[in-house]
Design a protein that fits this description.
Blueprint (H helix, E strand, L loop, with lengths): L2 H11 L18 H8 L5 H14 L10
């Protein structure tokens, strides 16, 4: 592996969401923060509002567009 590829992997690890912060299934309700985290984006008030609206419209199945 080249040092450039290694640096890319190191840089990306900063943006990964810890598995303990994500969940799927019916054992826990999905909230707007979960939906934004599943999309891999930063939490902002605007994204949380959009996620809340999407959850109102589609329900918990909205997370399926981000997680298989």
């Amino acid at each position: 592996m080249s040092s450039e590829a290694s640096n890319d992997e190191t840089n990306l690890s900063v943006f990964r969401t810890p598995d303990s912060k994500l969940h799927t299934g019916s054992e826990n309700p999905i909230d707007p923060e979960d939906l934004v985290r599943a999309s891999g984006r930063e939490l902002t008030p605007e994204r949380l509002a959009r996620a809340a609206k999407l959850l109102e419209e589609e329900g918990p199945s909205a997370v399926e567009r981000y997680l298989p």
